[in-house]
Amino acid sequence: MDLVPAQEEPLRQPLKSVLGPATAKVMAEHLGLLTVGDLLHHYPRRYEERGQLTHLADLPMDEHVTVVAQVADARLHTFASAKAPRGKGQRLEVTITDGSGRLQLVFFGAGVHKPHKELLPGTRAMFAGKVSVFNRRLQLAHPAYELLRGDPEESVETWAGALIPIYPATAKLESWKIGKAIQTVLPTAQEAVDPLPDSLRQGRGLVPLPEALLKIHRPHTKADIEDARSRLKWDEAFVLQVALARRRHADAQLPAVPRKPAPDGLLTAFDARLPFTLTDGQQRVSREIFDDLATSHPMHRLLQGEVGSGKTMVALRAMLAVVDAGGQAAMLAPTEVLAQQHHRSVVEMMGELAEGGMLGGAEQATKVVLLTGSMGAAARRHALLDLTTGEAGIVIGTHALIEDKVQFHDLGLVVVDEQHRFGVEQRDALRGKGKQPPHLLVMTATPIPRTVAMTVFGDLETSVLDQLPAGRSPIASHVVPAADKPHFLSRAWERVREEVENGHQAYVVCPRIGDEEDDPKKSGKKKSPEDEAEKRPPLAVLDVADQLTKGPLQGLKVEVLHGRMHPDDKDAVMRRFAAGETHVLVATTVIEVGVNVPNATAMVIMDADRFGVSQLHQLRGRVGRGSAPGLCLLVTEMPEASPARQRLGAVASTLDGFELSRIDLEQRREGDVLGQAQSGARTSLRMLAVIEDEEIIAEAREEATAVVANDPELTHLPALRTALDALLDEEREQYLEKG
């Protein structure tokens, strides 16, 4: 049997050999479509029925739209202008309607002649252009259009009922031109090689791939579209899950040293010192991790936990178990501030157990060292020596840990904090430091819906911590509409003063630092007219701190913290804040992850609409970490009806991160969630919606795991291999690698 199907070639033909160089160039540059296959997989965004028209009432501003509508009237006006001083200037105004609303089209100058002849009242056509506002009304200036004329032999009914595919288009290439190009290559769809194993396809009643491609581009009925969609979704889900299943399978073949904690070792001593009992969730997740550590292939586990659910405690117990078993554990943090913080809290939690080799250290103690890029040479040399000799059982650091100079005595476990800032090359570089691949635990505080975990972190097993430890206080969140109700903002500053008077502290978070050069190019182009709040640049730490010290927070000790400060200065500011010497910390999102000051009870987020939902949830998790209740105020100037305000309302209404991550995903497209390589035009998820298609993804994962277990190299499924190679071209391979 031929391993590379000969008939695969037609879909690999470059578009320029089929469509002509100009069109092919635009498709490559603006839509990322290079081959016939790419074009066949450029699916319609939606379908218009000629009889039913787009909702003109719902047109988005500043976006390139395609509408199907009927001309209501057309008027030619003459006017005087600099170019045509004698009143010879011509402007054609055409009003189109769809029953839901009306839209004005304008054409100027020599451009009026053709539309004046063609766009007569009653004519139906497709119009494409960018929606703008003129005199407070929506309009399209110089839209491209295509008249909808029925074929003479078509009856009125079939013509009105026909489904017109509307493709994701660009200003350079209208939807109907893409449609025509697709009609040119559509016969090639017959040659498409089907990646789904026959048994799977028939078992699930899915149509063959060539049929799905025909139906998605030329549907006769809505049922055709449904058939095609369910089939194409399965393809995407299945091929992606096979890629992940093969990665899991390959990982499972790697050898690792099993690490079982000694019965009366460091872990037992640590647990005995704990002033509280672990939550059921912490105990359950710890068991899952200890079971993995005891096996002879590397653990690959994702630990998801709400802000403050005690992930660090679970990770620390895993690290202690490995030290007990004679290995070393490394914890990687995305920033120096975080690495220092983790180091401080681990040393505090361990007490004399962290004083290995020192006077007063407990008998089972080990050493906990910190390794970051900005350490002095002597301290660094010392830390490196402790790692090489094995004196240090636990090392906490930034990616300085990955440098060539760093040698471990016996690296058994790597804990990565906040995965989304950490690529797999880095995980792999660390893996290479062990005599055999170390076990891996990835922690994230960004709650990830189950299906995203299955698609993005599909090579990791998942554990979820969903209870908050006892003693954590609830956080009240409120939206402060500064523009509609300025007195709410004054009240917000009063609340901050009250917290400070009660012996507590507060954060004020701003989107910018404030010492950047303002880029005139950026500020020149602004968003849509209703976004008055968008007109000004986002509020900046340095300006806000200045205004607060002179104004509403006069007399309080206010300090600033941002990413461009020298590491020593940052650390000094954090120390003063942690020690309670500073009342209010005005900061950028550098405080988003891992900053732990239990006495900080209030947070005011300025221009909260500039942050994403998950980010706001992360930030909010910095307050209410002690016994006093937390307060989070989301300040915004956005108008009440805006989507931004709805987003903030959602954050204020729930503390459930999983619920928020769903809202976040529904509002942003999956592209943002699935990482950069996925959000470009060549995203491999064209049809699959991560949230809605939860069942398909879960089923595809099971099928893929079974297929790979039977035939890891896919020897008997050449078509699936081909599809996999297409999915995992360079860019996507790297994307999956980066996790």
Structure write-up:
The chain is an alpha/beta fold. It is built from 29 helices and 21 strands. It has a seven-stranded parallel sheet, sandwiched between helices. The protein has a six-stranded parallel sheet with strand order 16-21-20-17-19-18, sandwiched between helices. A five-stranded mixed β-barrel has the order 2-3-4-6-5. Strand 5 and strand 6 form a beta hairpin. Helix 10 packs across helix 28 and helix 17 runs parallel beside helix 27.
Low-confidence stretches: 1-8, 518-534, 669-683, 730-739
Average pLDDT value? 80
Please report which band the strand proportion falls in: under 5%, 5-15%, 15-25%, 25-35%, 35-45% or over 45%.
15-25%
- Major sheet size, sense and barrel closure: 7 strands, parallel
By secondary-structure content and strand pairing, the structural class works out as: alpha/beta
Termini, distance in Å? 35 Å
Number of helices: 29
User: How many E-type strands?
Assistant: 21
Lateral strand order in the biggest sheet: 11-12-10-13-14-9-15
